[in-house]
Amino acid sequence: MAFYELCGQAYARLCGSCRRAPAWGRPLDDACGHVGCRVHRRELACRDLKNGLGYWQFSISIVSSKATLILVYAFRSSLSPKIIQALIYTQNWPWKDFKSISIEDDLSELEVVEKGAPAVSLAFLVPISLKHYCREPLRLGKNGSQSSNGKKLKKKKVAEKPSIALAIASALSGGRMSTRRGSTEVHEFDGMFLGFPVHYKVTSVIGHVFSVDFPARFQDWNSTNPLDLFDAPIVKSESTPKAHICRHLSQEARGCGHLVLWLDCDREGENICFEVIECTGFQSTAGKKVHRARFSSVTEKDILKAMNSLVEPNKNEAQAVDARQEIDLKVGVAFTRFQTSYFNGKYGNLDSRVISYGPCQTPTLGFCVRRHLQINTFKPEKFWTLHPYIMYKGYELKLDWQRHRLFDSDVTQMFRNFVKEDGFLKVIGISEKQVSKGRPAGLNTVNLLKVASSALGFGPQLAMQLAERLYTQGFISYPRTESTAYPASFDYKGTLGALARNPVWGDYVQQLLSDGYHKPRSGTDAGDHPPITPMSSASENILGHDAWKLYQYICQHFLGTLSPDCKYTRIKIEFESGGESFCCVGQHVLVKGFTSIMPWLAVTEINIPQFAEGQKIDISRIEADEGSTQPPDYLSESELISLMEENGIGTDASIPVHINNICERNYVQVQAGRRLVPTALGISLIRGYQLIDPDLCLPDIRSFIEQQISLVAKGQADHSLVVEHVIEQFKRKFIYFVKQIENMDALFEAEFSPLSDSGRVLSKCGKCLRYMKHIPTQPSRLYCGTCEEIYYTPPKGTIKLYKELTCPLDNFELLIFSMPGPEGKSFPFCPYCYNNPPFEGIDNLFGASKSSGSVKLGKGAGMPCFLCPHPTCQHSMISQGVCACPECDGTLVLDPVSAPRWRLYCNMCNCLVSLPEGAHRISTTRDHCPECDSTIIEVDFNKKTTPLKDGATLHIGCILCDELLYSLVEMKHGKSFSRNARHRGRGRGRGRRVIISFQHAMTMNMARSAGPNHGGLDTQDSSDCSEDESLPPVADTRVNTFAGNPQNLFEAYWTGL
Question: What is its EC number (predicted)?
Fold first, then answer.
């Protein structure tokens, strides 16, 4: 236990001078939160005595007419009475005025009697600050536990993942814990904390609690100038709002006195620490109550070690992440929005949903394109080389020419003739030396990713996912590290012992333990985490094939670091003939060493016969081989990772993300051997950046940003100043880029087809009544050449014309979208409504953006017909909705094109309900069930399979209340289809009264609308307007045609759901 030195500054829970609470956990010179406060000591002491806030271990009772106030803070087990007495005498207090100081052996009382004064029974208790760190005063409860209310103090622990929370709770509780459900599981048990009995609560988050984004007013791509984003504020919102992690943390933190943070020990984890602190409310008393656990694995040993060495969270590293997030958000979104809007609006075969830019992503792509340009501009050259052959003692040896190769055929032939004329080779030198091939250093993240790509066939993204899973399961240490050097205190023997019973390499481990292992060679200590190390034994049956391959390599690498070096003998024989020198080399392995467990690094055995110096051997033949120089191959993922590391692009955690991004954006394609071949789009982008501003795609600028962010992490730079400086630089570059965009456009024009020449004719435009073309490449969209308008369509499915039906709101022809697979949904949609929802707030209702699969390129969330509340359209949710979804707050809607396998699907989740199969027709009616308010459906059965009596085929009823129909429906996804949905109407408990009133109001208002289009706007009004002077979006006019306040009407309708 640490030895705490005393000083003379008194403080209490609330300072009598400035009325501020002391910040527990501060150093001693600032224990009360404000240095120099000496006011109202006596009042504070009296209040503390009354409130019982003194420490309970023992007290000092001072008998004095002056009522001097002191309390010694010490540990019963570590400080003896003599030590306490010595401490008292060493302080700068006027002990000379006291006659005697006595301490009871049980530390229950210390008595001080003032010289020349009668004893008085005044005893006040007040904490005095400690030179190290002090703990919050606790009161002794009736049962001997410590708290301010007589109960055990509660301690909350937060991990980054549920699996890690479980491992921590299991290690600290010894498996004796109770678990209850919440947003994430909560494990509870009793234990000790800093010498006190406490009640633990261990829970977790699921990654970052918050994500950064722009406020709502900057979200619309059409109304926001990308340049404004550089000066726009940013807001933090919950990353996964449906998980309610913030509320969960706040609730679980109530009544807890301490917070212990078990997040991943990297910058991202440090940032999540402060997100958790914000959610729990501990920031108001940050310091003594907030603790940070530093750990590299989730084994019981490491967890207990981390628990005994808690530190404070690092604010600087958290701010470094904040800085990076803000820079990447503003720079990336501004360039991405401008590029996407500009190029997707002009070309039809780009085959990319967004034309993105990223300060790390784009230089990464630049490496791939640079190699592609080197390959295309490479000019091969012919060369020749000489290879004499000899037959000696049963060996045919091919000798290597010391000149290696020549680029002149005539000169090569001349040398060949010289050798041929001699006809023999003379041995002129024999050298033999022992060579040592060093064992590997520890394994860091970058080297793991390289091996995973080049040898195991895993992309960086998959490799990191597998490594993280192995880590959370407790099989390996933390997989994100830059270090290759093990700490001096690393327990090699214990780690080897954990692997000794593995059936694959257990015998090798036993041999290492018996013969003695070698300490790993020195590597790089980055000060973050030890190298990636196996922590427990596993098998392929436990892990699965892919995870096992990665785990196997990690184990083999670790065992290789503890093995002896590989030693072999290298023999070189030198020959001379016709004035030219040749040689051959032999190798003989003496000690396999680490290559026994890492055979792919083994030295090849090369046997050659013995020669004697001066010996002459006849040449059997001599060949002048012709060859040509070869261009470099396309970059492999392993090579790209090396380039990114060398140039400071990304971190060990973000490198896989950047490589994955350029693949998903269709900038590169991964081909055989995991080679990255850039596409025409990727090449055009990089060449365009090089024409306009090469800095945008060079690694130097990102490397500089990473250096600045590292200074923030070390506390050597202010994060706000770094962000301000970087954003200002990119803002200037963006302005110049926009002015010079024609240079890049010229490259795109030579490579891609205009929208007018792309796609196939599909449906009519509701404005000009001319046919629009469907462009299926990403992003899937419709293009009207007459209006020069683009309408995005749902991605990843097929689009067809739907019976030439039109939308009653805007006269656009309806389309049907079908998802792939036998269970894929199909739904109709209007292209205009999908891009410009006619009702405000539709993108926030029912999770419309997720259920419809919208591209959401600033074109609204997307409103398919299954979300439309229009009362007269036969395809809207009002007409086709049947009943409430049994799994969520959505509505089960009839799939209009699912015959003969009729079904209902939820407009929010993946719930799918099959209806009587083989029916000729199933349709909804205008009637509603009097019991549950679900829509009555009409089923026309097949005559051969009808379940009705006497061969009847027509049946009308409610699928929830009608016994026949209920017996014929079946849930395909999710929970079983039950009658729990009864009495909920067709979604969120809506009732007929609200529906009817809405239908009536909407019908009345639609009758007042003028003209064939939205709100009477004819086709000529929009086409005659220039881009800068165009009228407001048609959707706004359409909404404004309703009498009264349409938003209030719409909200009133949805309130009844």
Answer: 5.6.2.1
Residue 644 CA to residue 368 CA, distance in Å, equals 11
Give yes or no: residues 705 and 692 share one domain: yes
Structure tokens, 296:
């590299």
Poorest-pLDDT segment among 87-96, 154-163, 593-602: 87-96
In a shared domain, residues 505 and 643:
no
**Full domain range(s) for residue 450:** 445-564
Structure tokens at 967: 């017996």
Tokens of 894: 């009839």
Q: Are residues 262 and 309 in the same domain?
A: yes
> Residue 283 has what pLDDT?
62
DSSP letter for each residue of 315-343: HHHHHHHHHHHHHHHHHHHHHHHHHHHHH
Q: What whole-number distance in Å separates Cα of residue 202 and Cα of residue 166?
A: 8
Q: What is the number of domains present in the chain? A: 7
Query: Considering the domain boundaries, does residue 469 fall inside one?
Result: yes
Does some domain include residue 417? yes
Beta strands in 393-497 (DSSP E): 395-398, 400-401, 424-437
- 898 in the same domain as 973: yes
What single-letter amino acid sits at 81? P
Q: Residue 481: which CATH number? A: 1.10.290.10
Catalytic residue among 357, 478, 689, 832: 478
What would the pLDDT profile of 392-402 be if each residue is shown by its tens digit?
888 889 999 99
Instruction: Indicate the DSSP class of residue 613.
Output: T
478 is catalytic: yes
Dihedral (C-alpha) 738, 744, 749, 754: value to the nearest 10 degrees? Answer: -40
Question: 900 preceded by cis ω (within 30°)?
Answer: yes
Q: How far apart are CA 938 and CA 922, in angstroms?
A: 6
Residue range 807-835, pLDDT digits in tens = 888 889 888 888 877 677 788 888 888 88
The torsion of the CA quartet 106, 110, 116, 117, rounded to 10 degrees, works out to -110
Give me the sheet containing 881-884, strands edge to edge: 881-884, 891-894, 903-906, 912-914, 970-971
Q: Based on the domain organization, do 560 and 571 belong to the same domain?
A: no
Checking DSSP bridges between strand 621-628 and strand 382-392, what pairing results, if any?
Answer: antiparallel
Q: How far apart are CA 226 and CA 323, in angstroms?
A: 20
3-state helix/strand/coil string of 980-1019? HHCCCCCCCCCCHHHHHHHHHHHHHHHHHCCCCCHHHCCH
- C-alpha closest to that of 460 among 444, 474, 448: 448
Token pair 């969520």 is at which residue?
A: 888
Give the residue among 668, 670, 686 at the shortest CA–CA distance from 748.
Answer: 686
The one-letter code for the residue type at 574 is E
* Maximum Cα interatomic distance, the chain, rounded to a whole number of Å: 125
| Residues 914, 95: Cα–Cα separation, whole Å | 90
Q: How far is CA 29 from CA 310, 467, 918, in A?
A: 21, 45, 83
The phi and psi torsions of 375 (rounded to 5 degrees) equal -70, -45
Percent of the chain that is helix, strand, coil (3-state, to 5): 35, 20, 45
Q: What is the CATH number of the domain that holds 207?
A: 3.40.50.140
- Is residue 156 domain-shared with residue 285, that is, in the same domain? yes
Contact present, 136 and 288 (Cβ < 8 Å): yes
Co-location of 647 and 690 in the same domain: yes
- Report DSSP state, residue 428: E
Least reliable range by pLDDT among 166-170, 434-438, 675-679, 717-721: 166-170
Asked whether residue 896 falls in the same domain as residue 790, the answer is yes
Separation CA 441–CA 523 (nearest Å): 6
Element (H or E) spanning 851, and its range?
A: helix 848-851
* CA–CA distance, 855 with 750 (Å, rounded to integer): 27
Look at 64-78, 428-442, 456-470, 749-763 and tell me which has the smallest mean pLDDT. 64-78
